Amino acid sequence: MIDYFAIGLTHGLIALAAWRLLSRADLDDDAADPHAPRRKSWRRGKPAEPEADASDA
Asked: For residues 25 and 39, is the Cβ–Cβ distance under 8 A?
């Protein structure tokens, strides 16, 4: 029973990571601007993290 749980848990986490990576908008866009504003967070009620601007320092 433990073996099935461990295998299921690790495969589930790998699938979650792959899903998050594949859902990125800039995945296959070499010309994407790395300093472009981030889109809205996928979590409800939590705003996207603000990006640090190097010119403000």
From this structure: yes
Tell me what the mean pLDDT of segment 34-47 comes to.
65
User: Among residues 45, 25, 29, which one has the least CA distance to residue 37?
Assistant: 25
To the question of pTM greater than 0.85 for the whole model, the response is no
Helix H, strand E, coil C: the string for 24-48 is CCCCCCCCCCCCCCCCCCCCCCCCC
* Nearest-angstrom CA–CA distance, 5 and 46: 31
CA neighbours closer than 13 Å in the CB half-sphere of residue 43: 5
